[in-house]
Design brief:
Helices cover 10% and strands 53% of the residues. The protein is mainly beta.
């Protein structure tokens, strides 16, 4: 059974909208716990014109999923999925990255996808996860929201960091 509380969802999205308007990154989400983050190295990307705007496509070079304390729990499968999005006719970037993680404990895989928007520096999104892992099976029904930043590392590579929050983490 999936747990969705309309008031909780509306409150979280309203808070994100206020931060988007203020153009400041969020470090917490209302009534949610920080469950970890994704760190992904990406290519610089290709822009493809389309009738609705310009699509951006980046490939994943590597990365993984981490607990809040930095312990790696999954490795990103490079070449599967990618950072994508659409810059519409008024300049708003609508993100839609997706990818595949392999859990380091050998318990299975997780397929994830995000939908959201980006202001000048920060991406705000909700995420869905589909996993066959018995250890992380709760992710199949978790409501995940978060924020992401794209930075350039010391080696010159682009990196995405998606911080993940959930009001439903671990609820059976």
């Amino acid at each position: 059974m999936r747990f969705f509380n309309p008031l909780l969802i509306a409150t979280s999205l309203a808070a994100a909208a206020m931060h988007v308007a203020a153009q400041t990154p969020m470090t917490t989400w209302p009534m949610s716990q920080h469950i970890g983050y994704l760190s992904i190295d990406i290519t610089s990307g290709q822009v493809i014109p389309s009738p609705r705007g310009n699509r951006t496509v980046n490939s994943y070079l590597g990365g993984g999923a981490f607990t809040p304390d930095g312990t790696q729990i999954a490795t990103l499968i490079a070449g599967e999925g990618g950072e994508g999005g659409l810059t519409d006719s008024i300049g708003v970037f609508h993100i839609n990255p997706r990818g595949v993680l392999n859990f380091t404990d050998g318990s299975g895989y997780a397929f994830w996808e995000c939908h959201g928007i980006k202001n000048t520096t920060t991406e705000y999104f909700f995420m869905s996860v589909d996993t066959n892992s018995k250890t992380y099976f709760w992710l199949n029904w978790a409501f995940l929201v978060g924020s992401g930043l794209k930075t350039t590392g010391s080696n010159g590579a682009l990196n995405l960091r998606f911080d993940l929050f959930s009001p439903t983490a671990g609820i059976p």
